[in-house]
Design brief:
Layout (H helix, E strand, L loop, with lengths): L2 E2 L2 E2 L3 H17 L5 H31 L12 H32 L2 E4 L6 H15 L6 E3 L13 E8 L5 E8 L7 E7 L2 E6 H7 L1 H4 L7 E11 L13 H12 L4 E7 L4 H10 L7 E5 L38 H7 L2 E5 L5 H12 L3 E8 L7 H11 L3 E6 L7 H13 L3 E3 L6 E2 L3 E7 L4 E8 L11 E8 L2 H13 L13 E3 L3 H17 L5 E6 L5 H13 L2 E6 L16 E6 L4 E2 L2 E5 L6 E5 L5 H5 L1 E7 L3 H15 L5 E3 L19 H10 L1
Parallel strand pairs: 3-8, 10-11, 13-14, 14-15, 16-27, 19-24, 21-22, 22-23
Antiparallel strand pairs: 1-2, 4-6, 5-6, 5-9, 7-8, 9-10, 12-19, 13-17, 17-18, 18-19, 20-27, 21-25, 23-28, 25-26, 26-27
């Protein structure tokens, strides 16, 4: 366990791999419906791809820059990469075991996966027609010759590396992209005697290899799946004279030719074919070269088809209407009465869409300001903003072009918004805008009223059905005036604002969090009640971890709910005896950041867009907001209490990172996401 001068730290990348292992546990959990377990395989795979594209790529850059150590790390980047590779291989082997188990379970449900070797006679006509009509037109086999440049492999695609043996036993090599980006990966075949059959696109292509290479006289054709993962980190230079939109567009183009950071291959591939591909693809021993199974890009399993009985899928949990907004004519009128807290996906995201739609047509509304990080493909939020502009409202959209993997979509949205006459702001060259804010101004003859939204999640209606997030709607001037200050930043970035109520990165977050924790330390030393309940996605910032250790040593009771990376080590004598950490992985993605501080018995409550990572505290625009309404405070306390009592999906985070499930001394199982769904029902 590396120590940072005087306190223990878990490496963030190894902690992340431990988090993804918890995702894989969901695929193992027999209480989870079978098809949902298969989809967790897809989530695990997709997570791992993103990890290599970002974090492994970052470590590789450090190695290439000959940086032997980084602050707060005992291991060098090179040693960390070795540990990542070792752990990834272990996870890959575990993944294969789970995969094989799940498909045996499918067979018990009369759902059969077949491949090119066991195609039934009843399916031959269907497969031949599907191949000729749908698949063949998308295939582009490339013959590999040393004289020709090796084709650039795309990071999101999978490929067949093909060995073609001639009658005289000499060989040719070919590579061919499997068109899974344009065609379904899973093809459902006609039922036979109430049995269901599925075949992968890969295996339809394998079945027809002879047809693809029919013009040659090969006696044997073999295909093996390979996949490359590319460095996905954007290189944005700091040339402030260059328009930021041009910078992002240029950087996206460079991503398409980024360097490989991982090469995964079918472990049965012949040595001569593997050696040829690796040498021509410029992969070397320093890269993460990982043997795998027959199939790759398991992220496609997120879209596994809905076959078989209803018991194989999770029961749909439809969001409830908020009790203060059911059958109400005006959202503004309800916010006038009291602050409103929305909790997704338990409560409907449509309430927020209704607010924007009402603002778009309300004659008293003069302006709408919003910041966007991610939005849905067919965004109702965007449509409402465009409608508002067409109705003569002043609409300002602060759009973050560097939202990872959404950069291209955000460029397109910004262009569309500008075409509609909306004022689009791109933020700052060196600060991502990650806050979740809306500010609506209404004027009548006697007064001006501002309404604000401060939230933990993006304005993305699709994600709101999956992500657990919290939104505050308020007209409290203590909050709305300071939300307005945040939007003023984008007009005058040289003016440093002051905030009394909001916690705003990079201006006062570290200082305010330290003061809140110091207050608990002071009260603990005075013998007063002192505790903290903190829910985050990630806890990585070393200074905040050090401060939590100090609080623990002073006697402050600390309960943490950390979904993903946790670099803090709980339960260590002399450091963290008073700290307990759990992680909840279930059907919804825990995403809200909620904070409760005892404050000597007069509790303080906050929601925030920020995790406790250095980037969120020091290098982003993030906003945390106090919750002043006592009934809403009770909602948050109830929510966190329910999660802390979870004895079904909560894992204990410990030094060993073994992800043991938390078991409470009760015979009654408590699954917090279902408990919360029922809580909001009542």
């Amino acid at each position: 366990m590396p120590k940072t001068k005087s306190f223990p730290i878990i490496n963030r990348d190894l902690s992340w791999l431990s988090f993804n292992e918890r995702v894989l546990q969901e695929a193992e959990d027999e209480s989870v419906p079978l098809i949902e377990r298969i989809r967790f395989l897809g989530i695990f795979s997709n997570n791992l791809d993103e990890f290599f594209r970002i974090r492994v790529a970052a470590n590789k850059r450090l190695v290439e820059a000959k940086i032997k150590s980084i602050e707060h790390e005992e291991d060098s980047p090179k040693e960390i990469l070795k540990k990542i590779t070792k752990k990834t291989i272990q996870l890959q082997q575990h993944f294969e075991e789970v995969y094989q188990t799940l498909f045996k379970e499918l067979e018990k449900e009369h759902i059969f996966f077949i491949n090119e070797k066991n195609i039934l006679e009843e399916h031959v006509t269907f497969i031949n027609s599907y191949f000729e009509d749908v698949v063949r037109p998308t295939l582009v086999p490339i013959m590999l010759h040393k004289k020709n440049p090796f084709p650039k492999l795309k990071g999101k695609s999978i490929y067949f590396a093909i060995k073609l043996t001639k009658p005289n036993n000499s060989v040719d090599f070919s590579i061919m992209e499997i068109p899974s980006l344009v065609l379904p990966r899973f093809i459902t075949l006609p039922d036979i005697n109430e049995k269901k059959y599925i075949i992968l696109l890969d295996d339809i292509i394998r079945y027809k290899l002879d047809s693809i290479f029919a013009i040659f006289n090969y006696k044997k054709i073999e295909a093996f799946t390979v996949k490359v993962t590319l460095d996905a980190e954007l290189d944005i230079d700091q040339d402030i004279s260059q328009n930021i939109l041009d910078k992002i567009s240029k950087s996206l183009k460079s991503r398409k030719t980024a360097q490989p950071v991982r090469f995964v291959y079918d472990e049965t591939i012949p040595e001569d074919l593997l050696a040829y591909i690796l040498s021509r693809n410029k992969s070397h021993k320093g890269d993460s070269i990982i043997p795998g199974g027959r199939y790759h890009n398991f992220k496609d399993f997120i879209d596994f088809p809905n076959v078989g009985g209803k018991h194989l899928r999770a029961e749909k949990l439809h969001p409830y209407k908020h009790r203060d907004l059911i059958n109400k004519m005006s959202v503004f009128a309800e916010i006038d009465k009291k602050d409103i807290l929305l909790n997704y996906p338990y409560q409907s995201f449509n309430h927020l869409i209704d607010l924007l739609r009402e603002a778009a047509i309300d004659p008293k509304v003069t302006s709408i300001k919003i910041n966007l990080y991610r939005v849905a493909k067919n965004s109702k939020v965007i449509n409402a903003l465009i409608n508002a502009a067409k109705n003569g409202k002043s609409v300002t959209v602060v759009i973050e072009l560097r939202a990872r993997f959404d950069e291209e979509a955000n460029i397109n949205w910004s262009t569309k918004l500008m075409d509609e006459g909306i004022h689009v702001v791109f933020g700052f060259p060196d600060l991502k805008v990650h806050s979740k804010l809306i500010l609506i101004t209404r004027k009548d003859s006697s007064k001006t009223t501002r309404y604000a939204h401060v939230g933990t999640g993006n304005f993305h209606e699709i994600n709101a059905a999956i992500y657990c997030d919290t939104s505050l709607l308020t007209k409290d001037p203590r909050i709305t005036e300071e939300v307005n200050k945040v939007f003023q930043l984008f007009k005058n970035s040289l003016e440093r604002p002051t905030f009394k109520h909001l916690i705003v990165s990079p201006f006062n977050t570290r200082r305010r969090l330290n003061l809140l924790i110091d207050n608990e330390i002071k009260n603990a030393k005075l013998g007063k009640p002192a505790y903290m309940l903190i829910k985050l996605n990630n806890l990585v910032d070393n200074e905040m971890i050090k401060k939590l250790y100090q609080a623990s040593n002073a006697g402050v009771k600390i309960q943490l709910i950390i979904r993903g990376i946790c670099s803090l080590v709980p339960g260590l004598k002399g450091f963290s005896e008073n700290i307990e950490v759990i992680s909840i992985i279930d059907r919804f993605l825990e995403h809200s950041r909620l904070l409760i501080f005892c404050n000597g018995g007069d509790e303080l409550y906050y929601l925030s867009s920020a995790d406790w990572m250095s980037r969120n505290i020091d290098r982003r625009i993030e906003v945390g907001c106090p919750i002043y309404d006592k009934s809403l405070q009770k909602n948050i306390k109830d929510m966190l209490t329910i999660q802390l009592a979870d004895n079904t999906k909560a894992r204990l985070i410990t030094k060993s990172q073994d992800n043991a499930y938390k078991k409470l001394n009760t015979k009654k199982p408590k699954r917090s996401q279902i408990e919360l769904y029922n809580y909001f029902k009542s």
